[in-house]
């Protein structure tokens, strides 16, 4: 059995979406980061970086239990465990991993900064707002160019590359981004939003 330690953030929802898409049985342990639950000794024993998500899997490699943190690593693990959501063709596989890394190094960190300074920072800092708002627009532009004439970010099929970026794009309003300016992203976003497994995954934890 897989146990998912998570909260209702884009990084957490990547994993609940993947688990739902893959049809894997899993238990959910909410980690309320608004109450600093990620700093408890019990959670730190799972991830000393005190970040969600984390999974434990009783049937890990070689049938032995495994604990994994970092959402990108978890997505790769789940895809390889099931043989789904990551292309088998070598070229398409590396393409998917490339766009997964773009999410990990660009989409998540930069849009997260936009969230913070536009929505949560206790002080208005014009420089930071301007910097991260512009970077958010640039990232959407990169995604829009990539999605021109193609359904998915990598290869010929929906993959963990799409799952990784989707929950961040779901907060486009928090980032001050009008999806109408990025029609290819909007089309991609709407197609993923229509998937029942995505809808279920976005509601975790309930």
Q: Notable features of this structure?
A:
single chain; 206 residues; four-stranded mixed β-sheet
Report a brief summary of the structure.
By secondary structure, the chain is of the alpha+beta class.
Your description of this structure?
52% of the residues lie in helices and 9% in strands. By secondary structure, the protein is of the alpha+beta class. The protein has a four-stranded mixed β-sheet with strand order 2-1-3-4, with helices on one face. It is globular. The mean pLDDT is 96.
Order of helices and strands: EHEHEEHHHHHH
The number of helical elements comes to: 8
Compute the number of strand runs.
Answer: 4
Strand order of the largest sheet: 2-1-3-4
Structural class of the helix and strand makeup? Answer: alpha+beta
Helix content: 40-55%
- Mean pLDDT over the full residue set: 96
Distance between the termini: 19 Å
Describe the main β-sheet briefly: 4 strands, mixed
Beta-strand content estimate: 5-15%
Structural shape: globular
Explain the layout of strands and helices:
Blueprint: E1 2-6, H1 10-22, E2 26-30, H2 41-44, E3 54-57, E4 66-69, H3 71-82, H4 90-120, H5 126-146, H6 160-169, H7 183-193, H8 196-201
Parallel strand pairs: 1-2
Antiparallel strand pairs: 1-3, 3-4
Helix pairs in contact: 1-3, 1-6, 4-5, 4-6
